[in-house]
Design brief:
The protein is 56% helix and 7% strand. With 213 residues, the protein is an alpha+beta fold. Strand 1, helix 1 and strand 2 form a beta-alpha-beta unit. Helix 1 packs parallel to helix 3, helix 1 packs across helix 9 and helix 5 packs antiparallel against helix 8. The longest helix has 25 residues. It is globular. The two termini are 20 Å apart.
């Protein structure tokens, strides 16, 4: 089993969390962000994560999770068609917009990027979000919006999202938020921080494992 992924990518993180939760051994392949050839050769398009497992291969994170969670422990198959699942996806899109605006200018200076992949990433992302220098100037605006969204999240934790046990919702939420730990001007509330750490502990998740182990 091979996982091709980026360290910062929330859709990659959710797959890594599930692999950790179930203790599944796999070969971790962190691709440089400017490597277009590898994903196109495998799937025909530059999109990660990609999981290959024998004849199985896909670059859709939820399909990967279904493959890994054949007994539906995380309730993905049960919940996916519900209106609440769609509402959570919409919430995460909103949440992710502020997270990315805050975190992208910092992600590019982590060990994941070299000069070439940093330049490629920045040029690609600035097409949609505008210059990173302007995003940094607007950080207080993004922080306030994110804090408002996280206050809404806090009300749903019991101690996991709407439940007493870990489900796919928690994997999806935690993977979107974990990258915010890189932003020095931002601090999670104690409740959100404890929640993220609890999800991480259950998933045996180490964000930097591929670089520092």
């Amino acid at each position: 089993m091979k996982l091709y992924h980026y360290v910062h990518c929330p859709f990659c993180l959710r797959v890594r969390m599930v692999l950790g939760l179930f203790g599944i051994r796999y070969e971790s392949i962190v691709l440089p962000y400017n490597d277009e050839k590898t994903p196109i050769d495998i799937m025909g398009v530059k999109m990660l994560p990609i999981l290959t497992d024998g004849h199985f291969k896909t670059n859709e994170s939820l399909e990967i999770i279904k493959h890994l969670d054949s007994n539906d422990v995380l309730k993905l198959r049960t919940l996916e068609g519900l209106e609440e699942f769609k509402q959570l996806e919409n919430y995460l899109n909103q949440l992710g917009s502020n997270v990315h605006s805050l975190a992208m200018p910092y992600w590019i200076y982590t060990k994941e990027f070299d000069e070439s992949s940093r330049k490629y990433f920045q040029e690609k992302k600035e097409i949609k979000r505008g210059p990173f220098s302007e995003l940094v100037k607007r950080k207080e605006e993004f922080i306030l919006a994110l804090q408002k969204d996280l206050k809404e999240l806090e009300n749903q934790l019991n101690p996991f999202y709407g439940a007493s046990t870990l489900r796919i919702y928690d994997i999806m939420i935690a993977s979107h938020l974990w990258g915010m730990y890189v932003v020095p001007e931002f601090q999670f509330s104690t409740k959100i921080h404890d929640y993220l750490q609890k999800v991480g502990k259950e998933c045996h998740f180490d964000y930097h494992k591929d670089f520092w182990s």
